[in-house]
Every structure is written in structure tokens, then in C-alpha cells.
Amino acid sequence: MSATATxxxxxxxxxxxxxxxxxxxxxxxxxxxxVSGSGLDTRRSDIRGVVRELEPEQIKAIKAxxxxxxxRWSGGxxxxxxxxxxxxxxYKALEGDTPVASYVYLEPTSASDYEEPKVPTLADEDEAxxxxxxxxxxxxDKKAADAKRKREARAKAKASPAK
Length: 163
Prior knowledge:
The protein is α+β, with helices and mostly antiparallel strands. It contains two helices and ten strands, in the order ββββββαββββα. The protein has a three-stranded antiparallel β-sheet with strand order 6-1-10, with helices on one face. It has a three-stranded antiparallel β-sheet with strand order 8-7-9. A two-stranded antiparallel sheet has the order 2-3. The chain starts with 5 loop residues before the first strand and ends with a helix.
């Protein structure tokens, strides 16, 4: 680890419509797996995001890339979201476009820390997050917030005309 690099848990929130997003050449998965044992004794444990070393310049590049990507919802009864770039030719903002930054998190951590991330997404922050910015949430708070986000996404998908 270089002198300026810090370990971060990086990933996507549970309500993100994609399983992985790529920003600044790095992957941001919802889940990774820890595999132990072999054969019939193989056990897989789901772990939120991934832990990696990040330099301050990488964090700036990630945040800059996240500002230019968004999810656009489509489909009537079964809404789907596709990842798009604001830099694409012919880009035009539509109601219901959701910025990727609202789903991506970066949490300073240690390699042995495999707890649920408890930090705001990149859309909620101006600077790199710090450990003391983390506010513990209860599982009921998370469930209520997830349910609210899903209702809002469905309402936005219904309000936007299907093509």
C-alpha cells in the first residue's frame, strides 16, 4: 500500500438496478463472495461491495465519472433501468433519470471489516467519506428506505412514457 492510499469498501447499494457499475476503470459490485472449503463442503458468503486501495486521485476520478452516468428507466409493467452517459451524442435529460452517484458508496475500512456499509452515497457528499461520517442504521430503517426508493422508482417508471 502506498503512503497516500487508503483501504475503502466500494460498491453499490442494495436498491441499485445493476449488479455492477464501472467507473474510472474500476468495478463497483453489489456483492462479492468469500469462498471456503472444497467439494461438498464449499461455503459461499455474500459480502457487500469489494475492499481495495484507493489513491486520492482515483477517488476524484471516480466521483467525476459518476457525475456523467445515470440510469434511465423503461418498460411498462416490468420497469428496467439501463446505464447511460451524459456525454453520449444526442443526450437529453428526461424526468426519472437517476444518477449513478446515488447508488455508489466509498467507505474507509480495514481489510478485515466485512460489515454492512453505513455511509452516504457519492450523491450525498462533496468530499471523500471518513469513518466518523458513518451513522449506524437499524435494519428497519434500511428496509423502510429501500421500500420507499422502490415505490418512487415504480412511480417514475409509470409516469414516463414507454417507447
